Amino acid sequence: MARIIGNLDANDDFTHPLGEESNFNESMYFNFFDPKKSTGGFVRLGNRANEGRAEMTLCLFLPDGRVLFNFKRAQIDNNDAFDAGGMLFEVIEPSEILRTVYEGQAIELTNARELADPTSAFRESPRKKISLDLEHVACGPMYGSSHSKAEEKRDAAQQFGKAHYEQHMSIRGRIEIDEEVIEIEGLGLRDHSWGPRHWQAIHGYEWLTINLGPDFSAMVSVIRRDPESQKSAGVVIRNGEFQLIKDVTIETEYEENGLYHKNLKVDIELEDGSDLQIHGEVENFIPLRNRRDHLQTHIGEGMTRWTCEDRVGYGLSEYLKQVDADPRSPDQT
Questions:
Q1: How far apart are CA 71 and CA 55, in angstroms?
Q2: Of the chain's two ends, which shows fewer C-beta atoms within 10 Å, N or C?
Q3: Residue closest to 241 by CA, chosen among 204, 272, 200
């Protein structure tokens, strides 16, 4: 069994009792990148059983710049499994081995920024048949918390997930796009959270998942509950040694619209007093959004090439920001 850090249990890999909160969400997320093929992506299922639906997301970054994407609100009436919208997550061995499967379609975007207008993108884009079957095997500890006292003190509408953990993984499997089969072998990160959640409950965050090899990985997060507060956290795992991040500074270069990130400089101070500097270059980018009560959340997803010292690797840089929404527009993702 993989090493577990925090007040967690291996059985936390399974779903948890459904809370009474209307916005109770239990979600699993996996990203994966094959550096030799410049191919990667992420899959997510978020169960909102009290709302009668699950949020299913599929995103695949291809080496020629295309992005394959699908989002679906699939009907569910319980929180017994992660199985909705053609996507299935299986726990093969808790804390150690999981499997992700998807059978369905995705829209094909030659310019993924077109998803800034999802209605038009889904209406006008061609569709591809997708079959995905990946095995995710632990290459680092499972770290996090099964409950947050700070979150539990907040009203459910202001919570963002009172339980959350992450784990770096190695990945092997295949993705089939129409008749083309791509064998995947690489690295990634998974996370699992449960509890009340609204995407509009916080002001913003930067979340960086970094894999520089099976023996060198990192996760960095900077979370702002409001414009005046900021909490930096994360881990670095190197040669089996796990260290918490004491402080981090992220310098970001944006595209002309000032919203889509494209280059990052990450200065990390570790708990032992040592420093790391990691540079990120976004090689492919897709803008996602979530709307509720005419509030709009931008979630920018960047397939990112990371460099640190003499290492080069891949991962995801995810930026969440609250932005102004057109009050005439319907709520959607």
A1: 7
A2: N
A3: 272
- Over residues 121-146, the pLDDT tens digits come to 999 999 999 999 999 999 999 999 98
Q: Is 237 helix (H, G, I), strand (E, B) or coil?
A: strand
Q: Is 203 left (phi over 0), alpha (psi -120 to 50) or beta?
A: alpha
Q: Residue 115 to residues 107, 233, 269, 281, 304: CA-CA distances in angstroms?
A: 10, 30, 36, 21, 19
CA 37 vs CA 108, 138, 182, 183: distances in Å = 19, 22, 9, 9
Would you kindly state where each structural domain of the chain is located, as residue ranges?
11-323
- DSSP alpha helix (H) spans, the chain: 118-124, 149-152
Q: What is the mean pLDDT of residues 86-101?
A: 98
264 in Cβ contact with 279 (< 8 Å): yes
- 179: its two tokens: 């008749």
Taking the C-alpha atoms of residue 87 and residue 82, their distance in angstroms, rounded to an integer, is 8
CATH superfamily, domain 11-323, is: AttH-like domain (2.40.370.10)
**Helix then strand then coil, % of the chain, to nearest 5:** 10, 65, 30
- In sequence order, the 6+-apart residues with CB closer than 8 A to the CB of 50 are 18, 19, 20, 21, 22, 23, 24
Residues comprising the chain, all counted: 333
